[in-house]
Amino acid sequence: MTIQIAPSILSADFCNLERDLDAISNADLVHVDVMDHHFVPNLTLGEPIVKRICEVTKLPVDVHLMIEDPDRWAPEYAKLGAASVSFHMGATHAPVRLARQLREMGCKACYAVRPAEPVEPIFDILDEFDMVLIMTVEPGFGGQKFLANQMSKVRRLRDEITRRGLSTHIQVDGGVSPSTAPTVAEAGADVMVAGSAVYGAQDPAAAINDIRDRAQA
Ligand code: DX5
Ligand code: ZN
Fold first, then answer.
1. Which residues form the active site (predicted)?
2. Is 11 in the pocket of ligand 1 (CB under 6 A)?
3. What is the ipTM of this complex?
């Protein structure tokens, strides 16, 4: 399986964003965490900054919305040029309607689940999504410890996708590093988000290659 690496700019230097976007040009996607102080206990950035990121980077922009009322806001990020938008099971009111709206706008739709949420309720609407995001930390902060207990969820989802012959991507977000990447890949995820493991490294581009190599080993 081809593994895609999506560095999270949550761990970048927000005063040197252009430099830090250049530093990850060998990545497959750039993951942008939007938090609102309500759905999660942290506040990051919103539309004006996502707009500039979409203009500046050559990578597809993967927006992870950790906000209340994504039904209202997700399409705005698609309009700005996001290649994919993730919204949370615990926040959305009408996931199918929202996914269809995003796809009609040419944006990939991704459904995100937190560690205590089951993945099975997504099975009945799986074909409405391009990607499912399995959180391997409680959303809100970078640098938390990887929750290995989420791997059975990834496995159950991979089995369902394979059984039905779907091409849905499985993204894992939280605590991904060169040491946890093999476990994540073995469970069946193909898109890996990494914040602190990339931007905390001396050489972010080398860290990306390292995660990719260990995942594909
Ligand atoms: C956490 C965010 C993640 C975060 C991951 O709520 O969704 O994308 O940046 O950071 P690391 O890789 O450091 O766990
Ligand atoms: Zn994220």
1. 33 (proton acceptor), 173 (proton donor)
2. yes
3. 0.99
- Tell whether ligand 1 has an atom less than 6 A from the beta carbon of residue 143: yes
Pick among 3.30.70.2390, 3.30.260.10, 3.20.20.70, 3.30.565.10: CATH of 4-216: 3.20.20.70
- Residues marked as binding for a divalent metal cation? 31, 33, 64, 173
Which of 28, 36, 173, 190 is catalytic? The answer is 173
pLDDT in tens, 61-84: 999 999 999 999 999 999 999 999
- CB count within 10 Å of CB 200 equals 14
Q: pLDDT digit string (tens) for 135-182?
A: 999 999 999 999 999 999 999 999 999 999 999 999 999 999 999 999
- What is the rounded distance in angstroms from the CA atom of residue 91 to the CA atom of residue 103? 19
